[in-house]
Design a protein that fits this description.
Bound molecules: ligand F0G
Number of helices: 15
Helix content: 25-40%
Distance between the termini: 55 Å
Strand content: 5-15%
Shape: globular
Structural class: alpha/beta
Radius of gyration: 22 Å
């Protein structure tokens, strides 16, 4: 791995609550003194870094043929803890597009709306940016087995990176509550896939006990290497914006690792003078899986009450988010806020994003649904610039999309009446005779109605 004269980062672990700075992490990545989460911090002065030199180094690497330089994560390695190049497991993750969203901008009532599509990663979700780095750390630690509890995307990503790094992977997922697309990925990538008769939070509990007993490397987002890798999405975003921060960044909230990572990156970039001001980072949850929203709104962030979560956006069906304190800190420091959205609001937002030619999975669509609410609350102003982070690809959960367009998604649910307003967005497939006349008449009828 080539180094740069412009930056010698030295990262150390620190507990987010008691401030202890252990030399290494325990198997569950919790502080031995107080049990809270660990994070990396730069143990050197930010003044030793030349921001302009770093930016041009990162740009130069985009023309390189080196696998590490071609990764949108490892390209920014000066901001990451050191892992020797021979341990790097990469699928050339990151490098995801930033799209203008004109129709969604109109629907939300803002002038400048863009989406950073993290679903365009190798396994089609944002998890790959954290997984390349944490799987590399497992490789460095010579682990034979890696494991995670997941609502589907972490497991798909972990299975792929474990396979690339010649490691075995163990997946714990809630039975029946993840999409087939995600499940099929971990099977194809060779994971030992266990569908547990519980929810995501139940899978996490069992996994935490398992890693204390067996030499298995934990790859959930409590692993601080995951957070470090996921930070790079924000660095890449700012580079795409020519280092001009947007006014708002909006992310979905599940286990709250991603919001913590993006917020950490923003704060570090500000401290290193890579950017001059902080965007406001806001977190959106589904109403049925809203423990963080309630923590902030009802308890002023003083505690988080776990709940039994339920939402059709299965990726964020999480009732006891591990990283809530980290997320709270970045919310406060960036001046962002929290919002919750209904199932119908999520479904409509997903179809609106689709109508801009961009496919995402339901959990990603909470961002647009949340933006509309933040606009009507006045938290986001019409003239402010907004970036939505789309976390997963449309094809992760095609069942949801088909049911929505057929009008079945909310049949027999308490949302049935509210769902009537989604009708204009539904594009039901039509079955017609195999004749030219039938196709022309379908075309003419569609033309009249558009
Ligand atoms: N969007 C998607 C598509 C996700 O898969 C997840 C989390 C989130 C948003 C929320 O991110 O947890 O960092 O707040 N999925 C995890 C998984 C939990 O197991 O795949 P978060």
């Amino acid at each position: 791995m080539s180094t740069t004269p412009t930056a010698e980062t030295i990262s150390r672990l620190r507990c987010i609550s008691c401030g202890a700075t252990p030399e290494s992490a325990s198997e569950d990545f919790r502080c031995l003194a107080c049990g809270d989460l660990l994070e990396f911090f730069f143990s050197h002065s930010p003044d030793t870094i030349d921001p302009a030199a770093l930016k041009s180094l990162w740009l130069r690497r985009r023309a390189s043929r080196e696998p590490l330089d071609q990764s949108g994560v490892w390209r920014f390695r000066e901001l990451l803890p050191h892992i020797p190049a021979e341990h790097a497991v990469t699928l050339r993750e990151g490098n995801t597009p930033l799209y203008d969203m004109p129709r969604c901008a109109q629907a939300a009532g803002v002038e400048n709306l863009q989406a950073k599509h993290q679903g365009m990663n190798p396994t089609a979700s944002f998890k790959d940016t954290g997984m390349t780095f944490a799987a590399s750390s497992a490789h460095q630690g010579k682990f034979r087995w890696v494991a995670c509890a997941s609502t589907g995307n972490t497991s798909a990503s972990m299975a792929a990176y474990a396979a690339r790094g010649n490691m075995r992977s163990l997946v714990l997922i809630p039975e029946g509550k993840i999409s087939w697309g995600k499940l099929s990925q971990s099977l194809d990538y060779g994971a030992l896939t266990c569908q547990l008769r519980t929810d995501f939070d139940g899978c996490v509990r069992i996994l935490n006990e398992l890693v204390r007993q067996k030499p298995i490397y934990l790859l959930n987002s409590v692993n601080p290497y995951r957070i470090e890798g996921q930070k790079t999405a924000a660095v890449e975003l700012l580079e795409q914006l020519n280092w001009e921060p947007p006014d708002h960044i909006i992310v979905p909230g599940g286990n709250l690792g991603n919001s913590s990572a993006i917020g950490k990156a923003l704060i570090e970039m500000r401290d290193l003078k890579l950017i001059s001001r902080l965007p406001k980072l806001s977190i959106i949850q589904a109403h049925g899986a809203n423990p963080f929203y309630r923590s902030v709104r009802e308890f002023d962030g003083k505690k988080l009450q776990p709940m039994t979560a339920d939402t059709l956006a299965t990726a964020i069906r999480i009732g006891n988010p591990a990283s809530w304190k980290k997320a709270l800190r970045v919310l406060r420091e960036t001046g962002g806020t929290v919002e919750e959205v209904s199932e119908v609001e999520i479904a409509m937002a997903k179809a609106e994003i689709g109508a801009d030619g961009i496919g995402c999975e339901p959990a990603s669509a909470v961002t647009l649904a949340g933006l509309k609410k933040l606009r009507s609350r006045g938290f986001v102003k019409a003239g402010e610039s907004v970036v939505l982070v789309l976390t997963g690809h449309l094809l992760k959960d095609p069942d949801y999309t088909i049911k929505f367009h057929r009008g079945d998604l909310f049949s027999g649910t308490p949302s049935e009446a509210e769902a009537l307003q989604a009708k204009p967005l539904q594009r039901t497939p039509i079955v017609i005779d195999a004749s030219l006349g039938a196709v022309i008449s379908a075309l003419e009828s569609a033309d009249r109605n558009s």
